[in-house]
Amino acid sequence: MFTGTATVDSLVSSLAMEPLTVVAGARFGDRQVSTIEFYDPVRGVPRDGAFILVAADLGANCLHDVVYDASRHNAAAVAVKGEIPPLPASVPLTIVRVRSDVSWMDLASALREQLLEHVQRQWSPAEAAADLFAVADTISAAVRAPVTIEDWRSTVLAWSAQQTTADPMRTESIFARTVPGKHLRALEQHGIFERLRTSPDPVFVPQGVAGDGAAARVALAVRGGGSVLGYVWLVVSEPLSARLSQRLTAAGELVAAHLLAAGHDTCGRAQRRRRELAEALIAGGPTRIATAEKLGLSEGPVSVLALGFARSATARGATPSAGICAETADLRRIEDSLAHYLAAVHTSGVAIRSDHMVYGILAWPHRTRQQACAAAQSLAADFAGRTPLPVSCRIAVSPPAQSVSDLSQARIQAEEILRTMCHPASAADAVANLDGTLLQLDLLQLANYADSIALPEFVGALRVLADQDGAQGPLLATLRAYLDSAGRAEVAAETLQLHVNTVRYRMRRIREVCGLDPEDADAMLLAHLQLRVRELRRRNHSAPH
């Protein structure tokens, strides 16, 4: 086991450039810090000893409540930007102000790096001497079923005797010392891991769910410090009785203690460490190449997935706080699902959640950029097909960067593709890349720029036509249909449900009114852009801010 010696004072003073300033509760600076966490309105205040980063702009009243809630849960410190409301001296925690130019993600990464160094200096592997096989036998006798104990990546750590009553999947897993990917994908597709991640109770898995010929199972997630350390799996013929379920739940605490004592908290710490490294990598910076090497993502082209939500009219009308909480919970579930999926099918990848989206960073060793592009699109589509995602979820796939050095550019491209997919005027599929969104992306950029400098909707010939015909007049509608159909009067007539001669007459009339020449390619391109951009600007103004 280990005893962390990192205190609030030691963490604050260990950072270069002095990004943190203690503004209240300095006398509590010797409090030990157990974890660095962002404040999450869904999950609430983290466990004892948390150094809480309040990245959201909550306002004085909400911030006041967060600080009091943190003190009740024995948090070590709260870090905020901007003004801090006055607090009684009796509040037993340290309040830290973050310099306004400091990135929250960079700060979290730096603090976690310092905390990890403190923890590693205290870690004593010699104290880890537990027999997981004996634990598995004990559980097997208590619940009368063959047992395996696995880590969070589904690596088989130990198993009980009497496995002859189990099924071929169990035998295959023990021989390989890991659960085969086909079974992991089946369990993920049926939402079993999602239930395990969210439920403290045993989860029953019916026969055949884990794959053809797979027997029924009962699984329990083993937790330590808020993280899933691993799983206990039983092969059964029917759901456990209430009494046996209680025994298994109690045994889960024993397994957690042994995993921690045996050093398998490395799994939980590895999850957290991998997440911290992923945060640093997605944020960019001079250490990104070294960080990618630590994650095993330094070879080959690199793609970025960005997953987020297209907000429906119903969601736009919901209470803001309720919408934020629901979105945060959905993003956390998607991050967990993507992380588990990548662990099963693409180990050269990591998942990381930000405030409004989830990123997947995918390295493609020994692939060309063209191969990486196709592989990333295929992986994203496969994940979407196997995972029960919210209907409004969209997945954007960036063009592959040549190497991790260009990752920040790939991230920006993925974000812009996702923003395009989530726009109210978008008709993109649930999974899309730049090939399918570039035109809409460019038009949105034009619309946003036109709004930013308050350009008029129409200039030149179109302004004359709109003044004469009206903004919703038949001539403008005919011109739009004609341009959308690439100058084919017959197609435009079908769209407008008019006779083709009527369309031709109106096009002649347009030329007479405003001088727009259908044979002038530049003039027609400008007219088409103005009409398309006007539609997007109007949708921008009706969309939620």
From TrEMBL:
Residues 475-533 form the PucR C-terminal helix-turn-helix domain. Belongs to the CdaR family. It comes from the Bacteria. It comes from Nocardia brasiliensis (strain ATCC 700358 / HUJEG-1). Pfam families: GGDEF_2, HTH_30. Residues 299-419 form the CdaR GGDEF-like domain. This is PucR family transcriptional regulator.
